[in-house]
Amino acid sequence: MGKIMDTKSKHLLIELFDCHKTTLQDQTKIETLLIQAAKAANVTIVQSVFHKYFPQGVTGVVIIEESHLSIHTWPEYGYASVDFYTCGKGIPEKALDIIQSGLIAGRTEVICVDRGQSLTDTAMSLRYHRHAMKN
């Protein structure tokens, strides 16, 4: 077995469906939402960069000292994908609650992967894979 590293890193892969389409197109709201989410996760924000596509869609990243939080939206489908990679004491699941509420997501799928566990063997492992529907 390979050497174990103490990276304490998590990688959340988040799919959000049936989201509020107008919000998915609003660059300012999306950026504000992701900054709020990063703060809720107790990570340190370095910078944010967002871009609005025409005719539709927003992409952006909040760079954090612990890594990154990114989003890509497809308003025409009511869909957004979010990627939150963090190490340290941050709690990315707290960001998830903020993002789901802010986008008014009807359905969410989340995969959490622990990363950097070994230098020589399998470095990633699935922590959980969840599906949630809005009540």
Instruction: List the secondary-structure elements in sequence, H or E.
Output: EHHEEEEHEE
| Helix/strand structural class | alpha+beta
Q: How much helical structure, as a percent, in the residues?
A: 10-25%
Instruction: Return the domain count.
Output: 1
Give the number of DSSP strands: 7
Oligomer: single chain
Average pLDDT works out at: 89
Coarse shape:
globular
Cα distance spanning the termini: 45 Å
Give the second-level CATH assignment, the architecture. Answer: 4-Layer Sandwich
Main β-sheet, spatial strand arrangement: 2-3-4-5-1-6-7
What is the alpha-carbon Rg in Å? Answer: 15 Å
CATH topology: S-adenosylmethionine decarboxylase
Residue ranges: pLDDT <50 for 5 or more in a row? Answer: none
| Sheet of most strands | 7 strands, antiparallel
The number of distinct helices, counting runs of at least 4 residues, comes to 3
User: What would you give as the CATH superfamily?
Assistant: S-adenosylmethionine decarboxylase
**CATH class label:** Alpha Beta
